[in-house]
Amino acid sequence: MTFDGCIFNAYTNTESANNSNPIWWREDTEGSGANANPIKTFTFVNNKVTGTRPVKIERIGKTVSPIFTIKNNTFDISVQAGDGAVEKNMAINIGMGENPNLPFTLIDEGNTISANTAALYTASLTSGSNQYKEVPGMKVLDGNGNAKVIKAKEWKTGETFELKSVK
User: Fold this and answer.
1) Which range scores top for mean pLDDT: 19-23, 45-49, 81-85, 128-132?
2) How much is the pTM?
3) Which of 52, 68, 146, 154 has the smallest CB count inside 10 Å?
4) Around Cβ 154, how many Cβ atoms within 10 Å?
5) Structural domains counted in the chain
6) Structural domain that includes position 135
């Protein structure tokens, strides 16, 4: 899946404002099975995203080890009315679900966030379809293939954690 040079312009879900993600991808409703459509590669480059919720990819790592290339994007993710103190205005959410067994690779470079955006990356650290777990073999790289550490924020709590390569 590739998004190159796209503009995401403040989409709001009128039936459920909390589901106003510009992209929300799940392998399927159960994360595996006959209807599974796992992401093998997700390339998100040269895009401009304005909104109130992150680009969300979840329930990964069950059947394949995906590669995410996220480069040279700009994000302006504002707080949505009704959010209160809960931080949801983050740019990218990569979630592994509750039972991942395969690592992912994240190639990150040249992305910028506005002052309105709480963090470039987010995930849950406790449970759910957007949960992040350190899995052996996971790689977080810059555009030249060098390991890097990215400061991220936990979904809803805003606590910081590190996205990094795991041996």
Assistant:
1) 45-49
2) 0.92
3) 146
4) 18
5) 1
6) 2-163
